[in-house]
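Format notes (please read before filing issues)

Several people have asked whether sequences and structure tokens are stored in separate files. They are not. Every record keeps both together, in the order shown below: the sequence lines, then the token lines. Line labels are part of the format and must not be stripped during preprocessing.
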Amino acid sequence: MAPNARPPLARRERQIMDLIYRRGRATAAEVHAGLADPPGYSAIRALLRVLEIKGHLRHVVDGPRYVYLPTVPRERARESALRQLVNTFFDGSSAAAAAALLDLSDARIDQAELKRLAALVAQAKKEGR
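Then the structure lines:
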């Protein structure tokens, strides 16, 4: 694992992190209420502690409650997760990952998205990546 890398997340941990990223911050009760088919409240609190230990969350005390906040911005977490996915399933090839995403797309890609992708490819060529 790279320096500063956090341990990978289990499915339920990812669900909790997604909820907290969407909300910006959340208590254990809010996490419990926000999950589809949640485990018990005690299990939610235990999962939040695990996410703190793994370095994904921190908490602040607000009266009798702990309020949980992400430790890194969502964009940085997204990049880290995507990098792990590309390395694991595409042998580190961004091109192979991008091609797979385009192949999986059920919807047509609109002209604005195609222009953005073309600009990213052109920039990568220019930078020699």
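For reference, the curators noted about this record: The chain has a mean pLDDT of 89. The chain has two domains: 11-70, 74-126.
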